[in-house]
Amino acid sequence: MKKYHSPRVADVKLNDPVFAPRIDTAIRKTIPACIRKCHETGRFEAFKLNRYEGMPKLPHFFWDSDVAKVIEGMALALELRPCAELEAELEKYVELIISAQQPDGYLNIVFTTQQKDQRWKNLFDHHELYCAGHLMEAAVAHFNATGRRNFLDCMSRYADYIASVFGHGKNRIPGYPGHEEIELALCKLAQATGNRAYFELAAYFVNERGQDPNYFRQEHPRLAEQDLKNRQAHKPVREQTDADGHAVRAVYLYSGMADVAAEFNDAELFKACENLWQSIVNHRLYVTGGIGSTQAGEAFTVDYHLPNDSVYAESCAAIGLVFFARRMLNLTGDGRYADVMEQTLYNGALSGISLDGEHFFYANLLEVNDNTFSHGYIDKTRQEWFNCSCCPTNYCRFLPQLGTFAWSLGEHEIRLDIPAAGTLANGIEVSGDYPCNGNIRIRFTEHGTFKFGLRIPGWCEHYELKLNGAPCLAKPSAGYITLDREWQTGDELALELSMPVRPLYAHGKVTSNNGRLALARGPLVYALESVDNGRIIPQLLIPAEQEFTLTEAPGLPPGTVAISGRALKEEFGNESLYSTAAPTCSECTFTAIPYALWQNRGASDMAVWIRACR
Amino acid sequence: MKKYHSPRVADVKLNDPVFAPRIDTAIRKTIPACIRKCHETGRFEAFKLNRYEGMPKLPHFFWDSDVAKVIEGMALALELRPCAELEAELEKYVELIISAQQPDGYLNIVFTTQQKDQRWKNLFDHHELYCAGHLMEAAVAHFNATGRRNFLDCMSRYADYIASVFGHGKNRIPGYPGHEEIELALCKLAQATGNRAYFELAAYFVNERGQDPNYFRQEHPRLAEQDLKNRQAHKPVREQTDADGHAVRAVYLYSGMADVAAEFNDAELFKACENLWQSIVNHRLYVTGGIGSTQAGEAFTVDYHLPNDSVYAESCAAIGLVFFARRMLNLTGDGRYADVMEQTLYNGALSGISLDGEHFFYANLLEVNDNTFSHGYIDKTRQEWFNCSCCPTNYCRFLPQLGTFAWSLGEHEIRLDIPAAGTLANGIEVSGDYPCNGNIRIRFTEHGTFKFGLRIPGWCEHYELKLNGAPCLAKPSAGYITLDREWQTGDELALELSMPVRPLYAHGKVTSNNGRLALARGPLVYALESVDNGRIIPQLLIPAEQEFTLTEAPGLPPGTVAISGRALKEEFGNESLYSTAAPTCSECTFTAIPYALWQNRGASDMAVWIRACR
Question: Are strands B578-579 and B606-607 parallel, antiparallel or unpaired?
């Protein structure tokens, strides 16, 4: 069933203006910063299993996962940029983790120390299987980077033990994780080890979820339907058609479902993935690629409910959506998935981390001003760390993988999904400054016969393609132009993607955006910041019909394109809360910058959706 | 300090088109329905104190207050419409309540039975003093209606006991209620009994609140600042300038503060009331008179944060704001307070109950459609009852008092605050169909020399006043025209308040209303329902500059005035969540009805703030 796979991390080297600096900063800043935080907070220390009953409890029970994601990031960084010092440090942590494994294979810093008696006792709330999943992903990355099997073997023992505990047999627990993640991790472990038992275990977790009698209801008899929905366990996954509940858990589950569907050629399960995909993309997706409309339960809500100020759109959920999109793209080769993967990558995923690599949003708002208020406190500036620090540590392992989202590899086929400048080990060089501009050159540096696929993004209405200077009239199918030929060293494709400023409108049922427009250019969604426009953004109206100007964005990395244009500014004559005096309008200008880069020049008001003049 | 007092309930008889039918329905329907529910749920039964340790706990610990409010409503109804049957039933419940009083004076159905050991142990969460306050209010109403002292004496004993328990002396509890209410109730009890000790106790509760060391922090060491703020206990009340926390608790407290300020001529405390009033009115008040912008903590949020769909605006909070406004009006005679009292009465307070008197909103949304979503479930149709049923029972005692908000009595002075048709016992008759129209006639049926004050509402830009047919040129001061003369039997004032349709605009910082207008006429705020307009309300735009038409509102009580006019309807060409295709517009018409009457013709989408054409 699966048509494509992603390249290895080491096989893609980028030098584009967006991804490449983010990867560099991740390696130089984000990972070291998160390592420091893990030390400062005692997260590494906890693997010494020196906490006992009676000591204060850890602030939460998924520290293991934070460490695992940092380790995974170190391994990916190492794969990308070999470095003896980094490797030595990584090995030290790996050995520490391995040392915490119990004789039966179990490995968890909370439930082997202070809360021993709670092992597997509360799958709904405790994150044991989630932590196990992240450790497995880390072990696979460590194996890929170093070739050493110590961590991989450790995690295989853990997976074997888990396989002996869960399932339908006698003395087995017929449960599944409250926070999904292990499903996709087991598929990675199966691929790395060649042990198909781990695919089987992943399939068990996927298929058992939400079956009747409901395991979570057996654990917690008073759970409401809403609680089960938050964990995607209100019905069997094959029957789920709406993307519901906790957004991160949802897309991690859907990614695992796609992996299982691919492995078992399971068309029914793939159809469920497709239904859930449609639910997200047609009804529950922010224009930035963010998902999860409410902080309450960090969850999806209802169709078309996409508030800009009380949005949650957790960074981890955007990252998870990229994972899900990547898998659906690999399964089908359909450019629809690449479009959403790209939209999420360049906007809602990168918005969660500062350009300096050391500050993070947990929630990615689309509108911030003095009266932005969610139902609880939400940061309006990026923070160095959180008590629940899943997002910073997720960036440690997400950013070094960015290059892998640019290419797909198939049978005698290579596809360029995102034309970010750089090289693929298979002998192809991409140049240009995409996504800042749409002129892309692709040079073939090795001779070979294969299909070369070139994505024409869904947002692109006009493009020109030349092969060695001559117009190439091949038409895209499902978002890709495919050229099947014997490539000569020195062959060159020149692709020009037209990138006008595109005013976007939301569906009429998205009431928060009625009468509003968002500006996009290429794959980038733009936002207005008060840093550029003054603290009057809610008072601005932008005429959609105008010649927008492209300028250098002030105070942002060279090459960043800002959009400027004409606007109207409403002014209010008095300070009354309500009045019969209509606001008056005066002409002004506005400047918009790429959404992902907002709040990199200090605290600022911001809005993506601006009122449109009509 | 106090300039005016309200008339007795029995002294105002109304026959206007809005209040009078609501009072009638309250007596015929609401009170009997709530009595039934109190029986069905066991609320009356519980006063037999036959629940013991080991039985299932009551669903919440303020059932006493529900019963108290129903009893208070029965007493007010009796005062308004003497009825032997009602009186007999009332007396039965009163005796039942009295029978539950403990030898030391304590009276509470939860903390004398199942949770005996918890008496006064958790003032922050348990509602003992709140329940006591409502029982005291009921006792005063019962005394006023029947002249019998049995309940009043019972509650005096309870108040004496409370006075012996709380305060700064040895073995006293230096605490105060987690849910305010007893402060204003003690002032009523003091007035009814003439016992000033109850004023002193009210003053103690007001003044002790939020003092350092914080009593609630002593009870619950881990309380956050936000938790204290939710209870208005984050600082002493005299230092509070923002209306913060749980909205119902806030306005009950402020009402008690105003009572204490009046009794003790306490200018500093009055200033605090005024500051908190300003905070509400200038920054935190819905155009409907609703307060409390979020369901989380049922609370105020931040200045200018007034979302229409995720609003809470609890019915009880609107009722409490009327109480606070009434007290500030009595203290000062300033029409500013009457304006907000009237705004809240006719809109956000009456919206909480159906015309049939048996269905209730807990939260009063200003926008409802398929994708309205708060952080938890909020009813979009009125319900018969709630698990926490404070709002229905509050209407039992609020509606019979409506007439008392129409008049103020001062020294040799009578003031008409709201010109609802009816009679004041002091020999004044008002006719007309206010608030449906602005023609008001006031006839004096007795001879007498006194000042007569006539409010010119803040919303009114043009009016004409005639005395016995001759133009009266007296100008209003602080919202009232005062005529000081010897009134003859048959004297007649004719007041014509001009009532054009007024498009209202919100302050520019209220981002949820940028680019929107609300329609008002006289004191009534209007809303569009899908019942009249189709399910396209978010797609409508209304030009502010147009000749609006007044029509009979279809399916609503005769005399109800609807507003019709021209509108534009946006149409979307495709089903994509986001698209570059701008919506197109076509012309249509709209019909708006008074906000308070929405959802009386079945489930419906609704919006108060509609996009304005410019």
Answer: unpaired
B390 classed as catalytic: yes
C-beta pairs of B212-215 under 8 Å, 24+ apart in sequence: B215/B123, B215/B174, B215/B175, B215/B176
- Amino acid occupying residue B295: Q
What's residue A375's pLDDT? Answer: 61
Helix axes B315-332, B335-343, angle to 10 degrees: 160
Distance from CA of B385 to the nearest CA of A (A): 21
Q: CA A114: distance to chain centroid? A: 33
For residue A588 the two structure tokens come to: 């002004």
Kindly report, residue by residue over A367-412, the tens digit of the pLDDT: 999 888 766 678 999 999 998 899 999 999 999 999 999 999 999 9
Q: For chain B, what's the residue count?
A: 614
Asked if A511 and B371 come within 8 Å (Cβ–Cβ), the reply is yes
How many CB atoms are closer than 10 A to CB B552? 11
Q: Which residue of B has its CA nearest to A585?
A: B614
Task: Say yes or no for a CB contact (<8 Å) between B507 and A287.
Answer: no
C-alpha B361/C-alpha B353 separation (Å) is 6
Contacts of B217 (CB under 8 A, 6+ apart): B223, B228
Report chain B's C-alpha Rg in angstroms.
24
Q: Are B352 and B26 in contact (CB under 8 A)?
A: no
Structure tokens, B56? 């299932």
How far is residue A445's CA from residue A431's CA, in Å, rounded to a whole number? 13
Class in CATH terms, B9-408: mainly alpha
Q: Is the pLDDT reported for residue B443 higher than 70?
A: yes
Q: In sequence order, what are the residues at sequence separation of 6 or more whose Cβ sits closer than 8 angstroms to the Cβ of residue B589?
A: B564, B565, B566, B567
Tokens, residue B550: 């007044």
Q: State phi, psi for A243 to the nearest 5 degrees.
A: -75, 105
CA distances from B499 to A613, B18, B387, B520 (A): 32, 17, 41, 9
**List of chain A residues whose C-beta atoms are within 8 Å of the C-beta of residue B457:** none
Q: Is the distance from CB of A71 to CB of A142 less than 8 angstroms?
A: yes
CATH topology of domain B409-497: Maltose phosphorylase, domain 3 (2.60.420)
Question: Which strand (E) or helix (H) includes residue A230?
Answer: helix A225-230
Q: Find out whether B254 and B209 touch, Cβ atoms under 8 Å.
A: no
Chain Cα centroid distance, residue A91: 27
User: Where does the pLDDT of residue A166 fall: very low under 50, low under 70, confident under 90, or very high at 90 and above?
Assistant: very high
Residues of chain B with CATH 1.50.10.10: 9-408
Question: Which among B293, B368, B370, B371 is the top mutation candidate for probing chain A, defined by the most A β-carbons within 10 Å of its own β-carbon?
Answer: B371
- Where in chain B are all domains bearing CATH 2.60.420? 409-497
The answer to whether the beta carbons of residues A251 and A320 sit under 8 Å apart is yes
How far apart are alpha carbons B515 and B610 in whole angstroms?
Answer: 8
